[in-house]
């Protein structure tokens, strides 16, 4: 990780390093999972309730990210 930071010359995030390793084509579909993680953390940390529509949209989003990365 330090080698990548020295190469770039900046303090880069772990996401940037992951994209550099895996490639943008494989990493791009998973940016759509950020709202899904937000809901998951909201349920566990803030005790939020999830509606049926949110659950279905989360499943479709996960399936889309998996299909797009194949």
TrEMBL record:
Listed Pfam families: EamA
Predominant location: membrane
Residues annotated as transmembrane: 21-44, 50-68
Domain EamA: start-end pairs: 18-69
Location(s), subcellular: Endomembrane system
Keyword hit for Transmembrane helix: yes
UniProt keyword list: Membrane, Transmembrane, Transmembrane helix
Membrane topology label: Multi-pass membrane protein
Annotated InterPro entries: EamA_dom, EmrE-like
Family per record: Belongs to the EamA transporter family.
Protein name from the UniProt record: DMT family transporter
């Amino acid at each position: 990780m330090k080698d990548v930071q020295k190469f770039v010359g900046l303090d880069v995030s772990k996401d940037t390093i992951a994209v550099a390793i895996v490639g943008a084509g494989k990493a791009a579909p998973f940016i759509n999972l950020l709202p899904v993680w937000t809901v998951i953390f909201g349920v566990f940390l803030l005790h939020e309730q999830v509606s049926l529509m949110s659950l279905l949209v989360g499943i479709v989003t996960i399936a889309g990210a998996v299909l797009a990365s194949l």
